[in-house]
Amino acid sequence: MDKPYLRKLSEPTLENPIFVQGLPGFGNVGRIAAHLLIKFFNAKPFAELYSPSFPDYVGVTSKGIGELPKYEFYYAPMEKNNLVIMTGEIQPSFDDVVAHYVICEEVIDFAVSLGCHFIVTMGGIPITEDKVQVYIAATSPRLATEFMEKGAVIYSKGRIVGGTGLTLALAKEKKLEGVSLLGTTTGYKADREAGFLVFKFLMKSLGKEIKEGLGENIASEE
């Protein structure tokens, strides 16, 4: 394998799909939020992305089977849109800038091939004070304002590292619309509270309010 390789497991029928990405990073916020989405919708896997730029180790399952590191794509039906949810346990090394660009572009091209015209990336941003909230970065001022009116805080003059930011910026270059939802976290450990907050905010933005009891049950299972 000398370049990213995409393997389809099935060919789901998708209507007006929205692409949602949640990868590990600060506080594992994006990955936690993505897994909450997968559990809430009982989303089904349909594709996998492998790359020689991923770490040089394999994960071993409970049955003792070694598996290459990968990104996984799931689909979930909704009333007006389908969701395509991408997550994984790894990212390329932050020192390998080229790999990040190559893989993020591969991801965007695949999302476009599925009919996705709107991109959502989810992640965490480090803070020092105990202040829980969701920040928003977007591909246009209109979208930034729209999500600010839904309760997010505009993330200004900062940096979004890794695939969370790069996927959004590359999507903009390809004339796609999208947003990045960033949960505040100290980043020292997996932050389930921040992951749940981003998940809940995204669900609200999609027109699905999460009841406290149901949300707590989902979060506790994560």
What are its keywords?
222 residues; Rossmann fold; nine-stranded mixed β-sheet; 26% strand
Describe this structure in words.
The chain is of the alpha/beta class and 222 residues long. The chain has one domain (5-221): PAC-like subunit (Rossmann fold, 3-Layer(aba) Sandwich). The chain is built from 6 helices and 11 strands. The chain has helices at residues 29-41, 97-113, 141-148, 163-173, 192-205, 212-221; strands at 5-8, 18-22, 44-50, 59-60, 66-67, 71-76, 83-88, 118-126, 134-138, 153-154, 177-185. The chain has a 9-stranded mixed β-sheet, sandwiched between helices. A hairpin with a 6-residue loop joins strand 6 (71-76) and strand 7 (83-88). Helix 1 (29-41) packs across helix 5 (192-205) and helix 2 (97-113) packs across helix 4 (163-173). The N and C termini lie far apart (33 Å). The relative contact order is 0.21. The model has no long low-confidence stretch (mean pLDDT 90).
